[in-house]
From TrEMBL:
SMART domains: AAA. Residues 23-34, 49-59, 339-355 have a biased composition (Basic and acidic residues). InterPro entries: AAA+_ATPase, P-loop_NTPase, TniB. Gene3D superfamilies: P-loop containing nucleotide triphosphate hydrolases. Residues 1-59, 267-286, 291-355 are annotated as: Disordered. Residues 309-338 have a biased composition (Basic residues). Residues 94-507 form the AAA+ ATPase domain. Coiled coil: none annotated. Residues 1-17 have a biased composition (Pro residues). This is AAA+ ATPase domain-containing protein. Pfam families: TniB (PF05621).
């Protein structure tokens, strides 16, 4: 008895002929499923068990080979591409092409291959005797493709082999010569999203693909996942691609409007590729031959029960479907308020939806509510995490590119409402970016940040990033310090510092009296003045408010005796130490009456300085020291209008995934923590270097000094040269008025 050698190939093993080879492509084009002959009940009963198994297996194989349904996307791709093929026949260069873009699972590869199959069948019909003609070339872009890898994919389709040392030029020449010999006039390139123009290899591979388009007298059709957001249209290369190619959005077949339902019935019931008689007679139900089933996501028997906790009880009457609320009675209900506006709101057609590239969005099973002042990217990220979805894909579905033509994507309220099942006005109440009209972004901090950790604990799915207004420093509900944007440490508890919590309430009263602009400038100026007081070398006599600041720092940034290090250091917590005194100074800085006294005669200024000394230690410098930040504000800033933020928040973003902490911010934080642990003095200087105080240190927005130390020194100047400079600025300001 002879046993075969283990190394001998299996004679029944199928050949390696994928779709990206000419053998696999020809098999795909020639393949046509043949439906089995339907059997009557008597014929099926006469079959033996083995024949019945064989018959069922034959039917399963036929039904597994799904017949092709010409959806609107396939029809549009085929029609547009066939027209471009005719227009490009006599073109020498700059040929037009097609790009099929959409989310994963929307039939891009199917539409691309069906385009190639339809074109090759049409060419075979025109040239029945030319068996050497190969009109279609199909390749896929490999991940991290290089120019040589891309050229080898073209060569592999024709079955060309090259030695490992062959250069790209030889491969390209052989491919172009072979393509011209077999008369290729349609090139299909799938997985085009693997090309990234941001990398050098991706840009070179894109240039190689463009070179093929110039050398080959053919029409190119690309397909990829959301190629608009992958950077394929950026830069000079991207603009050239966008100008020569027609972008066709790929979307699933919708079933929302009456027109869509009619198209669905005509498609399923009348398509010649679908053969209802092929199903076994015992599997069909009487009286249902003419009914066309709805898509699975639209069937009422597939809808889950509402997730009310009482319905989990076995005896609850709402547990059974029969007890669910039925359709409304025949008497029409009266529409009120928002329902009237929604009823008369015009609905867009399917063509308009496809033209905008809008994907039909299904409601998520667990759409948790957004947090107050949360940014949409944070909310979408939490939804994606809870449901195991890709954040960037979900972000692309509910957003669109901004109308200004930039690369940022802004949230479409209707899409987010369809995704979560929540009304638009409820979402806009929590997410400022969805409000109409748009809010004044100068009222918010330019940098999103985390809020109260105890408030965020109610919102599952990950970290909650919020866009807080300028006046929000403390969570009054949980008595925790939020502070300005800094390192993402958990909010610190202020239970042992009630004066800091009371300062937030005073801050809100100042806001309601003077408005956000004056309050914003007043509180920042108060923080800046307190930072100058806290940054002196040596304590003057008598001791002042910095003693209370040192006590607060011991509570906010405690020292661990076992580890011999400070716990939870951050500059934001140092702002909490001086926040009560800064709010105490804010009414004097925001009030027009006190600003007029600060800019008045010497007697009026003395009255202003006396009021300052009643609220904080002033003067804070010994007589022999130069520099006074409060006197400088009275001289140079009291007559100016309130300072505005230097940077404002820009809504929208390119990708849904939020970036982590910047490396420079992390390095600056680590350096500050190191110096604080070593010296633990001059804390006010650390506050002056924080970006939160830049708007009041750079009131005109111009850097006068190379280093920031010069700007800090300039904010304490009261010398004669400074007085002359202020006089010149006031004359120039009066001349403009």
């Amino acid at each position: 008895m002879n046993t075969p050698s283990p190394s001998a190939p299996d004679p029944e093993a199928p050949p390696d002929n994928p779709l990206t080879s000419k053998e696999g492509w020809r098999h795909f084009v020639d393949h046509e499923p043949v439906p089995p002959r339907p059997l009557t009940a008597a014929e099926r009963a006469a079959l033996s068990p083995r024949e019945r198994v064989r018959e069922d297996e034959q039917r399963r194989e036929y039904h597994a080979d799904l017949p092709m349904v010409h959806t609107p996307v396939i029809r549009k791709v085929t029609t547009t591409s066939r027209l471009l093929i005719q227009l490009n026949r006599n073109q020498i260069s700059a040929r037009r092409g097609v790009i099929l873009s959409g989310a994963s699972g929307t039939g891009k590869t199917t539409a691309l291959t069906q385009l190639g199959r339809a074109h090759e069948l049409a060419v075979r019909k025109r040239h029945p005797r030319d068996r050497n003609r190969l009109p279609v070339l199909y390749v896929t872009v490999p991940p991290a493709a290089t120019p040589k890898m891309l050229a080898m994919e073209f060569a592999r389709f024709f079955g060309l082999t090259f030695p490992s040392r062959a250069n790209v030029t030889d491969i390209v020449d052989a491919v172009c010569a072979t393509a011209a010999h077999v008369r290729v006039d349609l090139v299909l390139v799938d997985e085009i999203h693997n090309l990234t123009l941001a990398t050098r290899s991706g840009a070179e591979a894109s240039d190689q693909l463009k070179y093929f388009a110039e050398r080959l007298p053919a029409t190119f059709a690309y397909a990829g996942i959301d190629v608009e957001s992958k950077g394929l249209f950026r830069g000079t290369r991207g603009e050239q691609i966008a100008g020569r190619f027609v972008v066709i959005p790929a979307a699933p077949f919708t079933h929302a409007t009456a027109e869509d339902q009619d198209a669905w019935r005509a498609l399923v019931g009348g398509h010649p590729g679908i053969h209802p008689p092929a199903a076994p007679p015992h599997a069909r139900h009487a009286g249902r031959a003419e009914r066309v089933p709805l898509p699975p996501h639209r069937r009422h028997d597939r809808q889950p029960l509402p997730g009310h906790p009482w319905r989990r009880r076995p005896r609850h009457r709402g547990r059974e479907r029969a007890h669910h609320r039925g359709p409304p009675s025949g008497r029409p209900r009266r529409l009120r308020g928002r329902a009237v506006r929604e009823a008369h709101r015009p609905r867009e057609t399917r063509e308009e939806t496809e033209a905008r590239g809008l994907m039909p969005i299904r409601r998520l099973p667990d759409p948790v509510p957004p947090a107050r002042h949360e940014i949409p990217a944070s909310y979408v990220g939490r939804l994606a995490t809870l449901h195991g979805l890709d954040i960037n894909d979900l972000w692309t579905q509910i957003t669109e590119r901004e109308k200004s033509g930039g690369m940022r994507r802004v949230v479409v309220p209707e899409r987010l409402s369809a995704l979560t099942g929540r009304p638009i006005h409820a979402l806009a109440g929590a997410l400022p970016e969805l409000r109409t009209p748009r809010p004044d972004w100068t009222m918010f901090r330019h940098q999103p940040q985390t809020g109260c950790h105890r408030c965020d604990a109610r919102h599952p799915g990950g970290k909650v990033t919020r866009l807080l207004p300028h006046h929000r420093y403390i969570c009054l509900r949980h008595r925790t310090w939020i502070g300005p944007p800094d390192i993402d440490h958990p909010a610190v508890d202020l239970t042992r510092l009630p004066e800091v919590v009371d300062a937030q309430r005073k801050h809100l009263r100042i806001l309601s009296r003077y408005g956000w602009a004056a309050t914003y400038d007043a509180v920042l100026s108060g923080l800046m003045l307190c930072a100058h007081i806290w940054s002196v070398d040596g304590y003057p006599v008598p001791f002042g408010t910095w003693d209370a600041w040192d006590v607060r720092i011991d509570l906010l940034i405690p020292f661990d005796q076992e580890k011999q290090e400070y716990i939870g250091y951050s500059t934001s917590r140092m702002f909490a130490a001086v926040y009560p005194e800064a709010v105490a100074l804010a009414p004097l800085i925001a009030s027009p009456h006190w600003r007029q006294l600060a800019d008045g005669t010497k007697a009026e200024q003395a009255r202003f300085f006396t009021e300052i000394s009643n609220r904080i230690t002033y003067p804070y410098n010994p007589p022999d020291r130069k520099g006074d930040a409060i006197a400088h504000w009275s001289l140079a800033d009291s007559w100016r209008p309130p300072s505005q933020p230097l940077t404002t928040y820009t809504p929208g973003r390119m990708h849904g995934k939020l970036s982590g902490l910047a490396a420079n911010r992390l390095a600056r934080h680590e350096k500050g923590a190191m110096w604080f642990s070593r010296t633990r003095k001059d804390q006010g200087r650390t506050l002056l270097f924080h970006s939160h105080l830049k708007p009041v240190l750079l009131r005109d927005g111009k850097h006068r000094y190379e280093k920031w130390e010069g700007t800090i020194w300039h904010s304490t100047r009261t010398d004669e040269l400074m007085r002359k400079e202020v006089a010149d600025m006031r004359r120039a300001s009066d001349a403009k008025d």
